[in-house]
Amino acid sequence: MSNLNADYNMLKKTTIDYLLRLKNAETPTDIKQQFLDSYRRFNAKMKLMTELITKIEQYKLEIIDYYCEDPQTFSFDDFFKIFHDFCSNLIRAREVLTFLK
Hints:
The protein has helices spanning 2-22, 29-66, 76-100. It has 101 residues and is mostly helical.
């Protein structure tokens, strides 16, 4: 999740930098228009991404609260690995029991 946030913030910063350069008076109007149209579409997608990241952070807080985890040390990667390992072991155990019947 931290990688996603870092990539998102870098993309957002880069986009703002390009937009500021685009607003430069020396930039031809036709180029400005072309990039502004693209920017509007991109900005709409960035707003959606912001909403999704906010929801993920809310879910993370709910998970931390539900499982009484420490917010300072909680890691989604570790959390999902535990459940992945559990499910893998459960499937393996079921296969062994099926084989033993």
